[in-house]
Structure to design on (267 residues):
């Protein structure tokens, strides 16, 4: 098999817009696995919401979570690597969110914390199989963090924050990325799906040319660039499609299955 490791984004890629894993896509991923391909989910989700997707595929193994912030092996939830930072580094951003009523959560590899949540936000977390810990003050937490996430049901709110923080550099030495229309993530400066995948491949002795990666958003760019073949979904923004090696159908049209059939199963 030309491609030994297949790196798959989850939301907007593997799953439909309704968060459904279709039978065709599941069968294609399973077929690649059964032919000896190593399937690695690479997602902005934490382990609690990523591993159920792996379970639905009927697989075990390694999952790159929190957009590269934490790499985890299942079963057993073994933390293989993390790009961590202290809560003190995001204190000014937390103050900003409180002042402007922007919802946020902070994540350790296996836990998520919020100071408040509305019904809309509770529904969002429920979709991702996550129940955050409700705390009075996240800055009092004595844990190492891997991701600080902002959320709004209104993309215009995220647009405004992204523009403001890009101008002011409020995130400092950390890294800010737009991980979806409704989300902004702030992480360790080296935390990317690409860096986590590069580190994993070095450990597994898999060369980049033997990696096939599929994604749909800006947080997938480093992963698509690292892989020997980086494929963008048809539902990707133009900036992602332009930088990919190839494209496939949308996530609502079994694009992952189409790509795996084209490049591996029927190749």
């Amino acid at each position: 098999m030309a491609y030994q490791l297949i790196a798959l984004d989850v939301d907007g890629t593997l799953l439909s817009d309704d968060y459904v894993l279709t039978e065709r896509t599941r069968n294609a991923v399973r077929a690649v696995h059964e032919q000896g391909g190593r399937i690695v989910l690479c997602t902005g989700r934490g382990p609690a919401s990523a591993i159920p997707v792996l379970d639905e595929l009927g697989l075990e193994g390694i999952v790159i979570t929190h957009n590269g912030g934490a790499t985890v092996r299942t079963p057993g939830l073994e933390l293989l690597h993390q790009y961590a930072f202290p809560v003190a580094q995001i204190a000014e951003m937390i103050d900003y969110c409180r002042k402007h009523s922007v919802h946020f959560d902070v994540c350790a590899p296996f836990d998520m914390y919020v100071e408040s949540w509305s019904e809309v936000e509770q529904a969002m977390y429920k979709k991702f199989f996550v129940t955050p810990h409700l705390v009075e003050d996240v800055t009092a937490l004595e844990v190492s963090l891997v991701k600080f996430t902002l959320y709004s049901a209104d993309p215009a709110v995220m647009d405004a924050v992204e523009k403001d923080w890009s101008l002011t550099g409020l995130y400092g030495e950390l890294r800010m990325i737009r991980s979806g229309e409704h989300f902004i993530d702030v992480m360790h400066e080296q935390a990317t799906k690409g860096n986590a995948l590069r580190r994993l491949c070095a450990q597994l002795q898999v060369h980049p040319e033997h990696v096939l990666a599929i994604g749909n958003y800006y947080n997938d760019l480093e992963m698509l660039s690292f892989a020997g073949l980086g494929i963008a979904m048809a539902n990707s923004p133009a900036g992602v499609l332009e930088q990919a090696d190839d494209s496939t159908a949308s996530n609502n049209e079994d694009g992952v299955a189409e790509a795996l059939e084209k490049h591996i199963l029927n190749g």
